[in-house]
Hints:
Layout (H helix, E strand, L loop, with lengths): L5 E6 L1 H4 L6 H16 L3 E6 L2 H13 L4 H23 L21 E3 L8 H12 L3 E6 L20 E3 H8 L13 H10 L3 E5 L2 H8 L7 E4 L1
Parallel strand pairs: 1-2, 1-4, 2-3, 4-6, 5-7
Antiparallel strand pairs: 6-7
Helix pairs in contact: 2-4, 3-4, 5-7, 6-7
This protein binds adenosine-5'-triphosphate (ATP) and magnesium ion.
Magnesium ion binds next to loops.
Amino acid sequence: MVRYLKAVLSLGGSIVASPGINLDFIREFASLVTKLRREGYHLAIVVGGGRVAREYIEAARGLGASESFCDELGILATRMNARLVIAALGNEAYEHVPESIEEIEEWDKVIVMGGTTPGHTTDAVAAMLAARLGAELLVNATNVDGVYSDDPKKNPEAKKYERISVEELIKLVGNEHRAGVSAILDPKAVRIIKEHRIKTVVVKGELQRIEAALRGGEHRGTEIEV
Ligand SMILES: Nc1ncnc2c1ncn2[C@@H]1O[C@H](COP(=O)(O)OP(=O)(O)OP(=O)(O)O)[C@@H](O)[C@H]1O
Ligand SMILES: [Mg+2]
């Protein structure tokens, strides 16, 4: 079994804070991260916006705000969620939430951050971070158990991929970004994964599956072939 000791985790806001703040999950997740660190893992976590982000984005859109203004609001929500994860991790994590990838210079503790700039989701931030840190693995933990041929919430005929090539994934995700979009990975994330050949796994945001993905075990999600 391959252990991926340097890994970036894109933790969907849908897992952390939708509909409400999922305190039990955050606590148990922090225990898992602490355990893995004891085993020598280096982890960086990018937390998504969840429902709070969508509520603010929709409200601002309704008030006539631009797409980038809406994205900025969503980013603020992701940073609040990141701080909750930091609160649970205590000394294991840096207290500071980086606002850009460029400002990150060391990786001795767990890095926890949210969004950076408008135009992409936290999945793209996680891909950029994985490239920057030279991580061996990117895990995208979300509210579905993998990549499907179509949105499984809208199309019951959609089929799950056990593996999918990055080229196929590019076709699947299209090339448009909209603030608050619900998609499995945004186009920018997929481009970065392809460019830097980052091994990526999409899994359901349950602790056992996240742990299995990080340990190179049976995660029952989708592997992206790069
Ligand atoms: N091809 C696809 N395969 C799987 N899920 C898809 C696909 N296309 C769209 N989706 C949707 O993407 C959703 C997951 O992304 P979503 O952005 O809602 O959650 P998240 O990224 O975990 O959380 P957040 O965006 O708040 O950080 C799924 O619930 C599913 O409805
Ligand atoms: Mg998302």
